[in-house]
Design a protein that fits this description.
With 210 residues, the chain is mainly beta. The protein has two helices and 13 strands, in the order ααβββββββββββββ. It has a single domain, classed as Lipoprotein localisation LolA/LolB/LppX (outer membrane lipoprotein receptor (LolB), chain A), CATH 2.50.20. The radius of gyration is 16 Å and the shape is globular.
């Protein structure tokens, strides 16, 4: 599916309160969050390869809905037990268990409850482009892979609101996300975090990782 790995990286936002102060302030007491976003992908040479728009809804713990509207519809839904990656153009949904394997892929930081320091090295905060940024780098886990990205930068505005993310993968490709109209702790419908495959959808279930 197009675009999915950077999105799962962007959803890796749960943070240890001891480090990354801007993140801990943003997440302190957070129950729900919703926003619109613009996503821009560039290759290792800085050439833009894709631009998209959509909406994000999160309910902690364990629930989120990330929906692309332009240029192609796509949907990612987590219901607390399973993760659904739906491509309506392909009439296909991939279903994954929301287990520990997702924490290394990377996924679910905004909705998780595991201390960030278990899986990531948190860098010092710094300011540029008018935002306060924190960088996260995945720790090695004894395998050849550290996940789908090398670094994720998370940017906050002067009010402490989530404003942007920059995700760099192992090939030097960069995905930038800009968030708009963010709302925290508003009531969200339970149906936002439920996915029922439409009739005729090809359903692919990935096995649990032991």
């Amino acid at each position: 599916m197009r675009l999915i790995s950077p999105v799962l990286a962007a959803l890796l936002l749960f943070v240890s309160p001891v480090h990354a102060d801007p993140l801990s302030k943003f997440l302190d007491g957070l129950k729900t969050y919703s926003a619109s976003f613009e996503q821009i992908a560039t290759d290792a040479g800085g050439q833009e390869t894709e631009r998209s728009e959509g909406t994000l809804s999160i309910q902690r713990p364990g629930h989120f809905r990330w929906e692309y509207i332009k240029p192609y519809p796509q949907l990612i839904v987590a219901d607390g037990a399973e993760l659904y990656l739906y491509d309506p153009d392909l009439e296909q949904v991939t279903i994954k268990a929301m287990d520990e394997s997702l924490s290394r892929t990377p996924a679910l930081l905004l909705t998780g409850d595991e201390p960030l320091g278990n899986n990531f090295v948190v860098g010092a905060s710094e300011t540029y482009d008018g935002l306060l940024w924190v960088d996260l780098r995945p720790k090695a886990d004894g395998t050849d892979s550290k996940g789908d990205f090398d670094t994720i930068w998370i940017g906050f505005d002067a009010h402490g609101d989530l404003a942007a993310m920059k995700i760099i993968d192992g090939f030097g490709q960069t995905t930038r996300l800009y968030f708009h109209d963010g709302v925290r702790d508003a009531a969200l419908p339970a149906s936002a975090f439920v996915f029922v495959p439409p009739p005729g959808t090809d359903v692919i279930r990935t096995p649990r990782q032991e």
